Amino acid sequence: METGASEVMAVLPETPGEAQEGQRKRLGYGERLMTVGEVADYLRVSPKTIYNWVSMGLIPCIRRRRGMVRFKLDKVEKWLLEFEQKGRKRRKIDVVMPV
User: Fold this and answer.
1) CA nearest 31: which of 79, 68, 77?
2) Distance CA 32, CA 75 (A)
3) Per-domain residue ranges for the chain?
4) Which of 26, 44, 46, 74 is most buried, by the most CB atoms less than 10 A from its CB?
């Protein structure tokens, strides 16, 4: 059985970048890593605050060579949910009226 060139080309990725992206997804790296500036914008704090949190070990991050720090969005969102507060319950006060 012979396959035509168009059938083979349909199976192969168009660029080397697409091949690398496919490999990254298979290995569980499908998500793009965020920079300190992107996380700071996302959380609406300064980049210096993010660096402070990283140095104190408060925020989940990936430390790369030469002090480079990256973040996975899903890990940051999960970390953020730990600080979510539930609304206060109102106490219901039963008032007994004298008869």
Assistant:
1) 77
2) 12
3) 29-81
4) 46
Phi, psi of 72 (to 5 degrees): -95, 130
Residue identified by tokens 């206060």 is: 88
Q: Which residues contact 45 (CB under 8 A, 6 or more apart)?
A: none
Q: Judge whether 29 and 74 are in contact, CB under 8 Å.
A: no
Does domain 29-81 fall into CATH 1.25.10.10? no
Radius of gyration of the chain (CA): 25
What are the respective helix, strand and coil percentages of the chain, to the nearest 5? 50, 10, 45
Residues 41-76 pLDDT 10s: 999 999 999 999 999 999 999 998 888 999 999 999
Would you say 69 and 27 are in contact if contact means Cβ atoms under 8 Å apart? no
